[in-house]
């Protein structure tokens, strides 16, 4: 928008001859400025230094601006004048404008907001650490709510039947389930046996070392049997499966999401939850209790070796004492947790996989979040089971 008249060639009469000028006069606490000439983008650079000198002046209460002699003005000229006005308004000087046309008022109002949006004293200070901490907590609470709703959606769709294709009489693919059991269950046996045996040996060694002060070495068997069968066996197995299989589920589903294969499944009439989530979830529910049993045997085997080496408790004596120390309730107290932990690991891994965006960075972030969240929730669930067992004296 420009004030002034243009001729047929597109140039303004007198634009090259009339440079912008400002006449200054001061009297009785009033600073008067009369503007004249052409105030456009091409010419305002000639007057910018003079305008900045005026902005630095002080010692008066009123600034009177006369715009009647301005021949032509665009937004650049209006910005220069409004910057002057804004500078003196901050000093508390009264501003008086006269001689401006209606279009000049429109230009000054249009650029006024931009001029006053300039920072006064650098960038805004961030909130203090307490506010930032509370904000982070609030965001995490909302993220937990969204994750819970997404988990219930996937779990409900899986239990409902996981329709793999519209019109099919059945929705369960046994081949996919057995394939996932082989990958998540059979493939995890070596690492589960190794880690469980080491943990069982460490528990027995530390127990023997401490109980030897009281002459109660035989109670190492009670310690290892109860701790492994009730708590550590299933917990260590779930943590290893969360790191091994949970991350794999998130990576597989996430990579399919990145390549839009999930959308392709929807297009051809398949339910992505039925195709991708259901076999993995069922495989985890079957494999984790079996792996827990194997882990219990491996941990007890490690405990037998450690007790034999540190407390001279023969394997036969260890097994005889173990039959007295534990019963079926001790065994089932750990095994009951396994299916619930498997559901949690599979559901969280699937949710994080479905949240993957279109970048490799997003895939890495959600794989990490899947493992961390799964381990965290599994430990919380184990604590809730411990409280529940104590309440019912199980």
UniProtKB/TrEMBL annotation:
The keyword Transmembrane helix is annotated on this UniProt entry: yes
Membrane-crossing segments per the record: 186-206, 218-243, 264-287, 293-310, 331-351, 371-392
Entry keywords, A to Z: Cell inner membrane, Cell membrane, Membrane, Transmembrane, Transmembrane helix
GO cellular component: ATP-binding cassette (ABC) transporter complex
UniProt keyword Cell membrane present: yes
One annotated GO molecular function: phospholipid transporter activity
Record domain STAS: where: 20-112
Membrane-topology annotation of the record: Multi-pass membrane protein
Ranges for region Disordered: 1-21
Annotated localization: Cell inner membrane
Chief location category: membrane
Pfam families from the UniProt entry: MlaE (PF02405), STAS (PF01740)
Role noted for this protein: Could be part of an ABC transporter complex.
Similarity section: Belongs to the MlaE permease family.
NCBIfam families given in the database record: MlaE family lipid ABC transporter permease subunit
Protein name: Phospholipid/cholesterol/gamma-HCH transport system permease protein
